[in-house]
Design goal:
38% of the residues lie in helices and 21% in strands. By secondary structure, it is of the alpha+beta class. Bound molecules: adenosine-5'-triphosphate (ATP) and magnesium ion (MG). Magnesium ion (MG) binds next to loops.
Length: 234
């Protein structure tokens, strides 16, 4: 299967005219390194693959049990692909390279570390100001991340914030109905709350306010707490 890059980010732009021919069979023969094994069996494995002198990210669920491989995984990859396509050209988001097949997507590799590897005080206020602006940009494209945590925020080239992992995101197209717009607003608010909490966590002495948890996420929080209590009482 031949594919073309669907939009060009910083690294990808340098190769904008290149058409890469890539199939799962070819992927198997390319140099590859495991970046992330997946937190559990429902998650993709994330590999770095060297192709024609550059590095791409491969999120792949082919090795997972069949319900994930055939149902949950493709649904999440569809979601993620849709978000990356809507974000084409937004600085701070990796370029979508291709849908390999139902079980895998390829993305531009962002060289950098996730915030999970930073200690308190290592990042400056400016990083979090830029993260807030990045959220404004993705929300303006109609994309809400929905589950932003320190593993999904990278400090990329030049210390710029980058966002990854749009598997739980929502894309609200122009003209979306009232319910979709409502959900989208709730998720945008959850993104801003997550960013404010990251700022608080990494910036000693930060007094920036953290927005209230939005209604839907409050319901999710209660459900989680009730489930935890139930588990502990058994
Ligand atoms: N485009 C990218 N460039 C560089 N690193 C990336 C990229 N995409 C993902 N990663 C790294 O791989 C890790 C896992 O990717 P991702 O979060 O998309 O997978 P996931 O299956 O949703 O995992 P989890 O549920 O644990 O967050 C990220 O935390 C990040 O460190
Ligand atoms: Mg993640």
């Amino acid at each position: 299967m031949a594919f073309r890059r669907e939009h060009a980010g910083s690294t990808a732009r340098a190769h904008a005219d290149a058409t890469i021919v890539l199939a799962r069979e070819r992927l198997a023969s390319l140099p590859r390194r495991r970046l992330h094994g997946g937190r559990n069996f429902t998650k993709a494995v994330v590999d770095l693959v060297e192709i024609d002198g550059r590095t791409i990210i491969l999120k792949d669920i082919a090795s997972r049990p069949w319900p994930v491989r055939l149902l949950l995984g493709p649904w999440q990859l569809d979601r993620e692909g849709r978000a990356y396509r809507a974000l084409a050209g937004v600085r701070g988001t990796p370029a979508f390279v291709a849908r390999i097949d139902r079980q895998a997507i390829a993305l531009e590799y962002v060289p950098g570390r996730s915030l999970a590897s930073y200690r308190r005080g290592e990042l400056k206020a400016d990083f979090f100001d830029r993260l807030d602006r990045l959220l404004d940009d993705i929300h303006a494209r109609g994309v809400a991340h929905g589950d932003l945590h320190r593993h999904d925020v990278l400090a990329g080239p030049g210390g710029e914030p980058y966002l990854v992992d749009f598997s739980t995101s929502m894309v609200a197209p122009h003209g979306a109905g009232a319910l979709a717009r409502f959900l989208f607003r709730q998720m945008c608010r959850a993104d801003r709350r997550s960013a404010a909490k990251l700022r608080q966590r990494f910036l000693p002495g930060s007094r920036a306010p953290v927005p209230e948890r939005s209604g839907l996420y409050r319901v999710g929080g209660w459900a989680r707490r009730i489930a935890d209590r139930f588990r502990r009482s058994r």
